[in-house]
Design brief:
24 helices; Growth Hormone, Chain: A; mainly alpha
Length: about 525
């Protein structure tokens, strides 16, 4: 029921205006989601062009995700302070500006600074796009609005790698960022033209400045520690030790402050709920494994299998096919199903896919690479909505925005941390396998001597060239064994986190509708 101080919401949009508005809001979502995956296949090219290692190039992904995670909890406060429509349009325009900065960046530090800005301004786009779409449709059509939103958010991961690979190979990596400019300007212009008369009321609210600063302190220091750790030899470096201690102290301070603050920036008391705790940990760990593997798979294909950026993108693109096909089906079966069963099936599906990948060899053909990626679309479709329904179930309506924001923060930040850990883990396992394999390369080993002699005969090469060819083959084999270890561990992790789902109580069917607040 409305009160004199809360005006009635504007009526739903109709006809052509609704179609155009849906397209504009969806494009803003698409642009954001696309940017989280489009850079994956371009990392080797970006690294080469800027004269840095691929590991350092991966910071382009991890720092964007970490900055994005920090901005998400601010969305509620900013919406009330600025107004929903103004904030959404400004976020799009700043995203366009930061995309341009990314494109023109001449060095890695400037590119990383632009990506941090891009991640920060992207924070409000996902939750606001859902809220704006839901307000544009009649209540009876809310499931349609969420299905349209989910399809847009799912198309991004399909289009991202393929589009990123094609642009990188055909033009320049800068254009993976420049394409946001016309899309963003169109989305911002149409959104402002249609929605400016439907602005939400704004009011001055105090912000938990201490909570925000301590959040930035521990997230930034932890992320930098994880990204720089391998280069600086981890805790043998005083810089890494200092970052680790600072992250720990600022995190402890953040916990104490937020639990005692009357209006915290992040409501940690939500973790007292069994469903929120179990669901958020499950979705965060699962997303960390899921996202980090999406980052290293195209890197492995390009560095060791000789795939071009566009080919690596096309191999990873089928991930979204089943995800898009099954999105409308999920809307129908969710209200009639136990969300815990669906989430369990998703985790079992992911475990199966990663186990298939752990059997890869250096002579793998493209079709064998594509099949697990295609099948991965099925658990991807079963993944987000049921877990978000579990997380939000049983919460009063006024707690849902804060809960959706906090679970999104945990998931996105887990993706950044997971990518750093997996990249380091793959490197460490590759070094270990290389050391084991090189142990066999001795003049006292007749098999090794025969192999070198055979290479000299086959290639018509000198002993030095035969040894160089052998070393290249050994590096490829070591990297493959290393990534197989990562795939196998990923499979095990998905099995191990299934009990977290069953710690929760059954999610009521009605909460599925609220699941849209969680997003991708």
């Amino acid at each position: 029921m409305s009160t004199p101080t809360s005006p009635l919401p504007p009526p739903p949009l109709t006809g052509g205006k609704l179609v155009l508005a849906t397209l504009a809001v969806a494009l803003a979502t698409f642009m954001n989601v696309l940017d989280s995956s489009i850079a994956n296949v371009a990392i080797p090219t970006i690294s080469g062009n800027l004269g840095v290692s691929v590991d350092e190039g991966t910071w382009v992904i991890t720092l964007f995700a970490a900055a994005n995670a920090i901005a998400i909890p601010l969305t509620g406060w900013l919406t009330q302070r600025v107004g929903q429509i103004k904030l959404f349009v400004w976020s799009i325009l700043l995203f366009v500006f930061s995309s341009w900065l990314c494109g023109v960046a001449p060095t890695l530090p400037i590119l990383l600074a632009a990506r941090v800005l891009q991640g920060l301004v992207a924070g409000p786009l996902i939750p606001l796009s859902q809220a704006i779409l839901l307000g544009s449709y009649p209540k009876s059509k809310s499931s349609t609005a969420l299905a349209l939103w989910a399809m847009t958010a799912t198309v991004g991961p399909i289009a991202g790698p393929a589009l990123g690979g094609w642009i990188t190979d055909s033009y320049s990596w800068s254009w993976i960022f420049y394409i946001n400019i016309p899309v963003g300007i169109f989305a911002a212009g149409v959104t402002w033209a249609i929605y400016r008369t439907r602005e939400t009321p704004s009011r001055k609210l105090a912000i938990d400045k201490v909570g925000l600063l301590s959040l930035i302190a521990w997230v930034a220091s932890l992320q930098i520690m994880l990204d720089k750790g391998k280069d600086l030899d981890w805790f043998n470096s005083p810089v890494i030790c200092a970052l680790g201690i600072f992250a720990l102290i600022s995190f402890a301070f953040f916990l104490i402050w937020e639990l005692t603050e009357a209006h915290p920036i992040i409501d940690l008391r939500l973790f007292a709920g069994r469903n929120f705790l179990g669901g958020t940990i499950a979705i965060s760990v699962a997303y960390a494994v899921f996202f980090s593997n999406l980052v290293i798979l195209p890197q492995w294909m390009q560095a060791y299998l000789g795939y071009r950026s566009v080919d690596a993108g096309l191999v990873t693109a089928p991930l979204g096919i089943f995800a898009v096909i099954l999105a409308p089906v999920m809307g129908k079966i969710m209200p009639k199903s136990d969300a815990r069963v669906l989430a369990t099936l998703a985790f079992l599906g992911f475990a199966g896919v990663f186990f298939m990948r752990s059997l890869y060899t250096t002579t793998i053909d493209t079709w064998t690479l594509v099949i697990p990626t295609l099948l991965q679309g099925i658990p991807t479709a079963l993944f987000f909505v049921p877990l978000t329904a579990i997380i939000l179930s049983g919460l009063p309506p006024e707690k849902i925005p804060a809960a959706a924001g906090l679970s999104n923060f945990a998931r996105v930040f887990a993706g950044a941390v997971g990518t750093s850990l997996v990249t380091t883990g793959w490197n460490d396992r590759t070094i270990l396998h290389h050391a084991r394999l090189i142990d066999q390369a001795s003049v006292n080993n007749p098999t090794f001597v025969d192999a070198i002699n055979g290479l000299q005969t086959t290639l018509g090469a000198s002993p030095q060239k035969a040894l160089a060819f052998f070393e290249a083959s050994l590096n490829t084999q070591a990297a493959m064994l290393g990534i197989n270890d990562i795939f196998w561990l990923s499979s095990v992790i998905f099995i191990l986190i299934i009990p977290l789902i069953w710690v929760t109580k059954p999610a009521k069917g009605g909460s599925a509708a609220a699941a849209g607040a969680g997003g991708h």
